[in-house]
Design a protein that fits this description.
The complex is a heterodimer of chains A (187) and B (305).
Chain A: E1 2-3, E2 12-15, E3 18-28, E4 36-43, E5 49-55, E6 59-62, E7 65-76, E8 79-84, E9 90-94, H1 95-98, E10 110-116, E11 119-124, E12 128-135, E13 150-154, E14 159-162, E15 171-175, E16 180-184
Antiparallel strand pairs in A: 1-6, 2-3, 2-6, 3-4, 4-5, 7-8, 7-10, 8-9, 10-11, 12-13, 12-15, 13-14, 15-16
Chain B: H1 3-6, H2 9-28, E1 32-33, E2 39-40, E3 53-54, E4 57-59, H3 64-72, E5 77-85, E6 97-106, H4 110-128, E7 133-136, E8 139-142, E9 148-151, H5 152-160, H6 164-169, H7 173-181, E10 191-197, E11 206-207, E12 210-221, E13 224-231, H8 236-252, H9 262-267, E14 274-280, H10 281-289
Parallel strand pairs in B: 1-5, 9-10
Antiparallel strand pairs in B: 2-4, 3-4, 5-6, 6-14, 7-8, 10-12, 11-12, 12-13, 13-14
The chains are: A mainly beta (187), B alpha+beta (305).
Chain lengths: 187, 305
């Protein structure tokens, strides 16, 4: 249990049943008035932000969050299924909570899953992921468009810009932090 | 070598110079500098200000009571720059140990201090800023001319969208002040917000023509609360009653009980009509040196000791 005076930036608390990350915190006291604690928080499930002012004496439950090593198994309709490498328990997440990570989820990809009350709320993929190009147009000799990249679709369905020399069937490395092409895998 | 500490040298230099300039300002106006004890047996009972106990006594939360005893004894114009302590006050604008400037003048009222505090701020700004402007948190505040003056009642109507009385009745006064009003004060020119509700009179006297409000004002620059001033209450029966009410409020919130400051209560009966003001020196240095937090204008924060 935290009291409001214990709050600080980076602390994770439970509020209205959801986990929140404290993103800003300050003490305020309007002339001769009572102590007030001004907070900004981000809902770790929905991403929405909240500004709240608390009086002293307010208490909070810490958000019990757990990071677990898992692997991606498969997609089942609108859900993505992961498995805990230790105990083989399976966890499901919907597309909305997966976010951009869905672009990189291929079978057996090792990921970190963040659990809140035994529910997966966020997935962290490796910084670099190898994905195979499933569709890209051949580079035409004599292309005068002046462009030094072309679109390519990879096996997850994600579309990105790649250099002209990339062909269908090639394995490429994508930087998942920017979503951009990084290099080609020599096979 | 503590390079972070040495990095503060420019602001600490401004601080030292500003404190000397504050002294000169008051000495030139005929104020006497006084030096009252920091360790006192009975701080002013205030509902939301907690003193730090020390050696069977308390560290002062303000030099107010001793300074008023000096007024009552016949000293007419006095000032003091002293350390004050308030338990558990820590934030970007709060330190539990901080520096307060207080000054008192006999036969004056809060209107006089509105003018004099403006003169002090303008004087310091002229000495310490390039163009008589304070740039703070992206706000540029003009110190060349008049200050804005607004009543607490007007501020609630204008910025909080409700009546002051309604905010008090709903117990939302402090929250609305912090969230809606303070950020709007002192952004173009400094703002004096005045005539606080009687229930927030503290040690000030009520207006004779409108006893629903007290002759009390606060000075704000760029949303930062800088000073609090009163036409001083010198009716010791009323003051005793208010202290007892504050002690009752302290009891309700489970805060430590204080003994009543009896010598003060006895002596203010002979205090002439007077005005007094307390100004946060650290915050003033923040504003004139453009420091985002109070940590940047003191050599050591409590966490660094």
């Amino acid at each position: 249990m935290y009291t409001v005076a214990d709050l600080k930036k980076g602390l994770k608390i439970t509020l209205d049943g959801d986990p929140y990350l404290v993103t800003a915190f300050d003490f305020a006291k309007p002339g001769k008035g009572q102590a007030l604690y001004r907070t900004k928080m981000r809902n770790m499930i929905t991403g929405s932000t909240l500004d709240r002012t608390y009086r002293s004496g307010e208490t909070f439950e810490p958000a019990s969050l757990e990071d677990r090593k898992m692997q991606f198994l498969y997609k089942e309709e609108e859900h993505y299924v992961f498995m805990d490498n230790q105990n083989y328990e399976q966890y499901r997440m919907d597309e909305e909570s997966i976010g951009d990570a869905k672009n990189y989820l291929i079978d057996n990809l090792p990921v970190d899953l963040l659990l809140f009350r035994d529910k997966a709320i966020a997935v962290d993929v490796p910084n670099f992921v190898n994905l195979r190009v499933t569709q890209t147009d051949p580079w035409l000799k004599g292309d005068t468009s002046g462009s030094d990249s072309k679109p390519a679709t990879v096996e997850t369905g994600y579309v990105l810009r790649v250099p002209p020399f990339i062909e269908e069937g090639q394995l490429i490395v994508i930087d998942t932090r920017s979503g951009e092409y990084s290099t080609r895998v020599k096979e | 070598m503590n390079s972070r500490l040495y990095g503060k040298s420019q602001r600490l230099t401004i601080r030292a110079q500003a404190v000397q300039n504050i002294r000169m300002f008051f000495i030139n106006r005929g104020y006497l500098e006084v030096d009252t004890p920091l360790l006192i047996p009975a701080p002013a009972p205030e509902a939301h200000i907690d003193a730090i106990p020390a050696a069977g006594l308390y560290l002062q939360t303000s030099p107010e009571l001793c300074m008023k005893r000096l007024l009552a004894a016949g000293y007419r114009q006095i000032f003091q720059i002293s350390k004050c302590w308030r338990a558990a006050e820590r934030g970007s604008r709060h330190l539990p140990e901080f520096t307060m400037l207080e000054w008192y003048a006999a036969d004056r009222d809060y209107r006089y201090l509105m003018t004099e505090s403006m003169q002090l701020i303008s004087y310091l700004t002229a000495l310490h800023t390039a163009d008589r402007h304070i740039s703070y948190n992206g706000t540029r505040v003009d110190l060349c001319g008049e200050f804005e003056q607004i009543t607490v009642r007007e501020a609630f109507k204008l910025y909080a969208g409700c009546e002051m009385e309604e905010a008090l009745a709903k117990d939302e006064f402090d929250e609305l002040m912090t969230e809606k009003i303070e950020p709007r004060l002192g952004n173009r020119v400094p703002t004096i917000i005045y005539d606080y509700p009687a229930s927030r009179a503290a040690l000030s006297r009520l207006r004779s023509d409108d006893p629903t409000v007290a002759e009390r004002f606060e000075l704000y620059i760029a949303g930062v609360e800088l000073a609090n001033a009163f036409s001083e209450l010198n009716d010791n029966r009323v003051q005793r009653k208010r202290f007892e009410e504050e002690l009752e409020l302290r009891k309700e919130r489970g805060a430590p009980f204080y003994p009543l400051p009896e010598p003060f209560l006895a002596e203010i009966a002979t205090m002439p009509p007077a005005a007094g003001i307390a100004l946060g020196v650290d915050r003033l240095i923040m504003l004139i040196s453009g420091a985002a937090t109070i940590d940047e204008v003191v050599a050591f924060t409590p966490e660094e000791l």
